[in-house]
Amino acid sequence: MIDKSTLRKKYKALRENLADDSIEELSLKIANQALKLGIWDKTYYHLFLSITNKKEVDTTYLMHILQGKDKSIVVSKVDFLSNEMKHFLLQENTALKVSKYGIPEPVSGIEISPETVDVVFVPLLVFDHSGNRIGYGKGFYDRFLQKCNSNAVFIGVSFFEPEVEIPHEPTDIPLHYCITPEKTFDFRHNQLFL
């Protein structure tokens, strides 16, 4: 099995080779795939705000869907001292500031507890056929997902197809779904949506 650092390098390089217009097109396809999931009866949706210089999936399209459906959108602010994330309700007047790590974050706002969140869209570099994921290695999302309620749904988004298997720890929280531009993988029921 390939080790995590090799996988991180591989998928960072694959992303690096994507043109900006490809990122837009693929991100829009991912958002359209998301519409096929039976998740739209919930209230609180946690959305990561994309790090543009890392060529992450552009979540603007998902945000438009959530706003169009009048859902409550929750976004995070990273606290590198405590290695935790705080979560805030995204409102029309929420001021965002790009952190030194390139992450758009709320300056302040109404804090939302992880237990309140119904659906989490999870950033990742790579995932496998069992719903394991590898991120940037700081563990922020694993710590956050552990605090969510047992009914919360975790959805990864990826430009790329899964690896067969990737290394994972007992503390890693697996995804319930992962959406790619062409397919959605359902790890709970071991199904694939096209």
Question: Please, could you describe this protein's structure?
Answer:
By secondary structure, the chain is α/β, with parallel strands linked by helices. The chain has one domain: Rossmann fold, CATH 3.40.50.10420. The protein has helices at 4-16, 20-34, 60-68, 140-147; strands spanning 44-46, 72-79, 84-89, 96-98, 104-106, 119-122, 126-127, 133-134, 153-157, 177-179, 184-186, 191-193. It catalyses: (6S)-5-formyl-5,6,7,8-tetrahydrofolate + ATP = (6R)-5,10-methenyltetrahydrofolate + ADP + phosphate.
Globally, the shape reads: globular
**What is the H/E order?**
HHEHEEEEEEEHEEEE
CATH class: Alpha Beta
Please identify which CATH superfamily we are dealing with. NagB/RpiA/CoA transferase-like
Number of strands: 12
**Uncertain residue segments:** none
As a percent range, the share of helical residues equals 10-25%
Strand order, sheet with most strands: 3-2-1-6-9-10-11-12
* Tally of separate domains: 1
**Overall pLDDT level:** 94
Structural class: alpha/beta
Radius of gyration based on Cα positions: 16 Å
Per DSSP, what share of the residues sits in E-state strands of 2 or more residues?
15-25%
| CATH third-level topology | Rossmann fold
Largest sheet: 8 strands, mixed
CATH level-two architecture: 3-Layer(aba) Sandwich
Number of helices: 4
Distance between the termini: 28 Å
Cofactor: Mg(2+)
Family: Belongs to the 5-formyltetrahydrofolate cyclo-ligase family.
Enzyme class: ligase
Catalytic activity: (6S)-5-formyl-5,6,7,8-tetrahydrofolate + ATP = (6R)-5,10-methenyltetrahydrofolate + ADP + phosphate
